[in-house]
Amino acid sequence: MDRFLKAGQPHPLVLYTDRDCCKKDEDSKYQKLFHRWDKLLVRLDSWHFMRRISKACSNESHPLYGTFMAKVSTAIFEWDANDMALLRNAKKNELQLAGVRNPSDDAVAKAITKAELARHCRRKTRGVENTTILLENLFLSFMDATSTTAHTTTYY
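Below the sequence we write its predicted structure tokens.
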């Protein structure tokens, strides 16, 4: 708290943590620790939220576990639209230099690797309302799923 004060910087409004975030009747240990920041909100960070969901699954060896958790991640996070547009344009130019005359949007999208996405594009959370809707729909779609059920729901 003193470092923020000495630097003349406003204190954070939200603190994301892996635990002690959801007390309703009393302050969390973080609110007590940062007691001068009276409007500090303490929230569970996205990765630990996903981990809590994964622990509620039957087990990691279930055939649909990987698919389910990938869709949970997609429901929570989205790629930055501006970064994606720049990457698509760069990939299109790269394909043209490689001799592909007029690559389709689909061909450009297929040519972008996961590593390129991670290297060149930022991800952000979709926000509480969108994430809640997408997760509810995902949970409902997996309600009667078996290991032979194909799930092709995607979120953009």
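The longest strand covers residues 14-17.
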